[in-house]
Amino acid sequence: MLDINQFDQINPPARLLMGPGPINADPRVLRAMAAQLVGQYDPAMTGYMNEVMALYRALFRTENRWTMLVDGTSRAGIEAMLVSAIRPGDRVLVPVFGRFGHLLCEIARRCRAEVHSIEVPWGQVFEPQAIEDAIQRVKPRLLLTVQGDTSTGQLQPLAELGEICRRHDVLLYTDVTASVGGNVLETDAWGLDAVSAGLQKCLGGPSGSAPVTLGPRMEEVIRRRRHVEEGIRTEAHQDGEDEMIASNYFDLGMVMDYWGPERLNHHTEATSMLFAARECARLILQEGLDDTIARHALHGAALLHGVRGLGLETFGDLDHKMNNVLCVRIPEGIPGEQVRGLLLNDFGIEIGTSFGPLRGKIWRIGTMGYNARKDCVLQTLTALEAVLGRLGFRAPQGGGAQAAWDYYDQHAGSAS
Which of 191, 269, 316, 386 is the most buried (most CB within 10 A)? Predict the structure, then answer.
């Protein structure tokens, strides 16, 4: 028989999450999540849904009508986009520069797409011309991209890809989970047809809700696959001419009908996560989106200077580094996992390892969302120096924190 007394109330240990995500949620977001629930069709609830759409239009810098939430982690947003847009046999092209480009290939294959990919070594990004050359060769229906890949710390330039895709009649989807809010994103100006994100990185919230936005070209593709469920459909509802979307839950046509004025029942909205998503966007826009991006750039650069001050080497092309993730080479002879363990167990600080060809070779340190702050950077550098010294790596005493401090002094007033 189950002994219920062995299960204490949840009381997680205090941690400073300085990895590639998730990060510590902003306390204001957690307070918003604690608000009492209301019914999914309560005027207050549908009012909050409309506010979320408006807030994320501003955050994504778009006028797209269909800017909304997919209930689930950021991967739910990715899968909803791909399963709704890709028909069996569609040809897609994926530029892979890290672990999450491979993820797009994986999901596209499960959508029964004909998947083509191009690759660069991890730590680099693509020149726009290389992507256009591949588009001319492959002739895909969709180009699937990642803006920021936390596995390598790299930020793929997107500004030219929208025009390239329109010239070749290709739909452009971008996963901005790791980058939005901490790096420049211009959905409309860059001609991005569809974008999906998550809350758990620069937006300063928990994982569990995926903001998405669909441009007119993507909306048209999805509407051609429209299907309304039996039991709620009327004679006025007409199915689209293309094959029905294979997933019910991730059918973005149904999700649009739920978020639209008809409020067709699809699922019960994850109310607490909607409150979280609303507060994440509200806080960033209250700070000012440009100021939020500048804050991420400031603390990311201070961390970089601090890491160099410790005598450590970085990984990847720094000209295309994300503001919010730094990849650091593990010094020769230093046990990388032991460093992470000591930081976690003795200092309460988490930093990340990596995947695939970089596993065991780099650490990934994040400065994002609520943790893009001076105190978090200085605390992490001080603890890292202590742990490295404990394990025999001789760094200049105080070199990391002092280098970061110097950078802050030189850039005083540029961001808080």
Answer: 316
